[in-house]
Amino acid sequence: MNRVSDQLPTSRAGASETNARGPATRDKTWTVLGLLKWTTDYFGRAGIDSARLDAEVLLAHALETERLRLYIDYEKPVLPEERDRYRDLVQRRAQERVPVSQLLGEREFWSLTFKVSSDVLTPRPETETLVEFALSKAPDTPVTGSPPPFRILDIGTGSGAIALSLASELPHAEITATDLSEPALQIAITNADHLHVRERIRFAEGDLFSPVASERFDLIVSNPPYVARADEESCPPELSHEPEMALFAGHDGLDVIRRLVAEAGDHVSPGGWLGIELSPEQVETVERELVQAGFVDVERRFDLASRARVIGARWPTK
Ligand SMILES: C[S@@+](CC[C@H](N)C(=O)[O-])C[C@H]1O[C@@H](n2cnc3c(N)ncnc32)[C@H](O)[C@@H]1O
Q1: pTM for this entry
Q2: C-alpha 247 to ligand 1 mean position (Å)
Q3: Burial category of 22 from C-beta neighbours within 10 Å (exposed 0-12, middle 13-18, buried 19 and up)
Q4: pLDDT in tens, 297-306
Q5: How close are the terminal C-alpha atoms of the chain, in Å?
Q6: pLDDT beyond 50 at 15
Q7: What sign for the dihedral angle of Cα 315, 170, 198, 186?
Q8: Residue 156 CA, closest ligand 1 atom number
Q9: Is the C-beta atom of 127 inside 6 A of ligand 1?
């Protein structure tokens, strides 16, 4: 595929005619609609599935406007400096396959805005299934009195998507968020600052339960790496821009989940819950491992595509 700079015109030429400088000097100018059509076609040829949506999101970003505003501004000419900003984004999307979230530097999750970079996994919509599971296990906010705090642990917090969403919903919870990656934790802390929940979350670096060695929690949640190395070849090119340690976990993708399940019993309070996000193909294996480890009341939760995406299980009271 040719470089976009060879194609996306820098000079006045393109989709519709305007008469900005009077009848004597009729120039062709790129309009919003013209650019969207051109880019959708270009992205389509580059193999990007969400070609039109990506074109709209990136153009709105370059124009510093809302995506829906583009529909009103279809015939508006796009200035050369705006086109330059857009061209750079289009090029990185099509040629380097940088995900849109990283080009924008942010992603919406649980109706909150999270800063993202190549140091963290971009939060995925299916992870909201784990947030819903966690909320269903949290006690209702008391009207009076001061019950003991509900203690939550989020292992592998990444951008902080799960921990910060729970903090926004559960003002009385005591939340700990850990990650093996120091750069990821820094992003989670920045996000906690922006979302004004920093003082309510304890952040700790380390492998699985090592930062919380002798502690127990009422609820443990984790969206660990679970992509199988065996599937790496078939992964979309965008994944190469996210951290390996956020994605891959051994040949069958279960290396981290197996250790998590085996160690979790030492850290869940009696009657407390463990919730793990995983790939639908891993569900039966992980259910068996949870039962072998001593968990009870194993349950599945389904994502918007009706695929089993979260496994929950309770630690017995005795
Ligand atoms: C799939 S990402 C999930 C990020 C975030 N929780 C989310 O749902 O968007 C997995 C995260 O687990 C972290 N991680 C990987 N191995 C780990 C380990 N052994 N102990 C703690 N964290 C780990 C990675 O650095 C990454 O941030």
Answers
A1: 0.91
A2: 8
A3: exposed
A4: 999 999 999 9
A5: 63
A6: no
A7: positive
A8: 12
A9: yes
